[in-house]
Write a structure and sequence with these properties.
This protein is an alpha+beta fold. The chain has a single domain (about 5-100, about 115-200, about 220-225, about 260-360), classed as 3-Layer(aba) Sandwich (Kinesin). Helix content is about 30%, strand content about 30%. It has helices spanning about 15-20, 60-65, 70-75, 95-100, 115-130, 185-195, 270, 275-300, 315-325, 340-355; strands at about 5, 5-10, 30, 35-40, 45-50, 50-55, 80-85, 135-145, 150, 160, 165, 170-175, 180, 200-205, 205-210, 215-225, 225-230, 240-250, 255-260, 330-335, 360. The strands form six sheets. Strands 2, 6, 7, 8, 9, 10, 13, 16, 19 and 20 form a ten-stranded mixed beta sheet that branches. Strands 3-4-5 form a three-stranded antiparallel beta sheet, with helices on one face. It has a two-stranded antiparallel sheet with strand order 1-21. A hairpin with an 8-residue loop joins strand 9 (about 150) and strand 10. The longest helix is centred in the last third of the chain and has 23 residues, at about 275-300. The chain is globular. Belongs to the TRAFAC class myosin-kinesin ATPase superfamily. Kinesin family. It holds the Pfam family Kinesin. This is Kinesin-like protein. It comes from Eubucco bourcierii.
Length: about 350
């Protein structure tokens, strides 16, 4: 119940071959100790975060340094945990969460390139085998495309699902499919299956641009064997010993671990989008603007907050519990160091800085 700030980390991707050939300058420099400096004409600013991962940081370094392992453990303990990546299109969000886009059943990714999702799945299953409690694991996977919520695991063509509200559950998706899993192979296949159905397109800045926001949620239910204090002289445990009670259990704990891969913010002028791509871009930017507005209000001291406009978009409704409720949230801001992307990079850095002031009560 103690007030906790959102943990915000920054990842700076390397310059691409195209950017290097074009002669783009690197304008973002890591200073160490969680700070970055932006140096360009008329722009000279320093930003601080919980951690900063520069272009040379490995996927393993990001997993351990971001606190992702602790988030998995908290989810097992019954907390609602969320991690989401945001930033400009092509800034490395999907790579950070999932690893290379070329991986599949016939071409698995090298272990060192696996993203936060696969590493978290492995950590979760490892913990479930060692913690001595029975864990029941299931997964759901959906996308928000053009303000429609669509299930990525249900068979058949994706169809829009209704988003409901209840006093006990908050905002939830009706008729969403939950699939049980017990092995790393099963959940990896579910991730691959859902990701292949997600809407992507190519434009000037990104050959595999996500055209939807994707939310993969792991539901964790645990039922641990209880203990009781044995009376003096009872059984072989001795006086005051802790013994297992027969057929009695603690109330089951229910935690969640939600991964949110936000579609990238984009400027139509830069991406060259037109027609359907332009409509998608407008919907993406509108929902990200609604998310930014919610974060701006939540960043104010509790006594000065006005109405928080969660209902302005499907995305903010589904993230309401994570942002301002009783959940624990990790935000990963992804940026390009290129001088050509300076405007979007500064926008992401300011966005992330505001998010650091948001608090929740886990």
């Amino acid at each position: 119940g103690r007030e906790t700030r959102l943990r915000v980390v920054l990842r700076v991707r390397p310059l691409t071959c195209t950017e290097t050939r074009r002669g783009d300058q690197r304008v973002v420099h890591s200073l160490g100790d969680g700070t970055v400096h932006v140096s360009a004409a008329r722009h000279n600013a320093t930003f601080g975060f919980s951690a900063v991962f520069d272009a040379g940081a490995s996927q393993e370094t990001v997993f351990e340094g971001s606190g992702m392992r602790q988030l998995v453990e908290l989810a097992i303990d019954g907390f609602s945990c969320t991690v989401f990546a945001f930033g400009q299109t092509g800034s490395g969000k999907t790579y950070t969460l999932m690893g290379p886009l070329t991986q599949g059943e016939t071409q698995p990714a090298a272990p060192g390139l696996l993203g936060l999702m696969q590493r978290s799945f492995a950590c979760l299953l490892e913990q479930s085998r060692s913690c001595g409690s029975d864990l029941v694991l299931s997964a759901s996977y959906l996308e928000i495309y053009n303000e429609q919520v669509r299930d990525l695991l249900s068979p058949g063509p994706p169809c829009a699902l209704p988003l409901r509200w209840s006093k006990t559950r908050g905002f939830y998706v009706e008729n969403q499919l939950n699939v049980d899993f017990e092995s790393l192979e099963t959940i990896a296949n579910l991730l691959q299956q859902g990701s292949q159905r997600r809407r992507t397109s190519a434009h000037a800045l990104n050959r595999h641009s996500s055209r939807s926001h994707a939310l993969l949620t792991i539901h964790i239910r645990s039922r641990a064997v209880s203990t009781y204090l044995a009376p003096l002289g009872e059984g072989a445990c001795g006086a005051g010993a802790i013994c297992g009670g027969e057929n009695s259990t603690y109330p089951s704990k229910q935690g969640t671990l939600c991964f949110v891969d936000l579609a990238g913010s984009e400027r139509v002028k830069e991406t060259g989008s037109s027609g359907e791509l332009s409509v998608e871009a407008n919907n993406i930017n509108r929902s990200l603007l609604a998310l930014g507005h919610c974060i701006s209000v939540l960043a104010k001291p509790r006594g000065k907050r006005t109405h928080i406009p969660y209902r302005d978009s499907k995305l903010t409704r589904l993230l309401a519990h994570s942002l301002g409720g009783s959940g624990i949230t990790l935000m990963i801001a992804c940026i390009s160091p290129s001088s050509r992307c300076l405007s979007e990079t500064l926008s992401t850095l300011h966005y992330a800085s505001r998010a650091r002031r948001v608090t929740s009560r886990p």
